[in-house]
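Dear Dr. H.,

I hope your travels went smoothly. While you were away I took the liberty of generating a structure for the chain from your last submission, since the lab meeting agenda had it listed for discussion. I wanted you to have the full record in hand beforehand rather than looking at slides cold. The sequence, exactly as received, is reproduced here:
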Amino acid sequence: MNPIPTDWLISWLMVFLRASGLLAVFPLFSAPTVPRRLRVALGAGMALLLAPMLPAAEEVPSTTWALVGLMSGEVGVGLLLGFLCRLVFFAVEIAGGLIGMEIGLMLPSGMNPNTGEQSSAPAAVLYYLAIMLWLGLDLHHWVLAAFQRTYQLLPVGQARLSAGAVEMVVGQSVHLFGVALLITAPVLAVTFIISLVFAVLGRAVPQMNVFAESFALRILAGLSVMGLTCQLMAQHIINYLNRLPEDILVLARLLAPPP
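The corresponding predicted structure, in token form, is as follows:
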């Protein structure tokens, strides 16, 4: 039996580490309900498919510390790529939290199995909506294709944390609050009008318990508007999900050393 070539084994290991870092924070696969063995198996399968396409390593690390540094860099690249994909789902969770707070559904919070954290009912509904859109539009395959192309832009061991990469990740993190407000704009507008109307009624009829009287109306109006504008919310989510493959390639290009 012929021994496995060392350069191929190192290529497989580097792809496995980058893919494992991606899957560790990737939406759906990073859920507590997904077994760790399944994530490891997916990472190993991706490495088996991608490693033969990569060029052989120019030089094998001669020391243990050099190999550890190379492995740490690949894990860091995978974590950055996965975090970039996760930002859209963070925005969806924030949007659901804003809706729950505005219509009064934050107190009966439940456990979201996809995140392992407590969240309101609107946040869980929007998160499941984003997951279904992501899978239904076949975007998970496009993200995997973009991950494969990152090796053309960012070969193994060439990652450098540049100012442009940091600026992009921070900018995307800040921009997610705007995305959340854009998703929840119809519900926020209706609840603001209800608050304004009951504030005027409270001044006109001081004996009225404004909070108790408006509570049921806020829930009814908020859920009704959320249901009627669900298609609009889905379109906003789709617009940002479609950008994920391109964002992955842009980040890989920014992490690559200058030509």
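Two observations you may find useful: The mean pLDDT is 81. The chain has nine helices and two strands.

With kind regards,
E. W.
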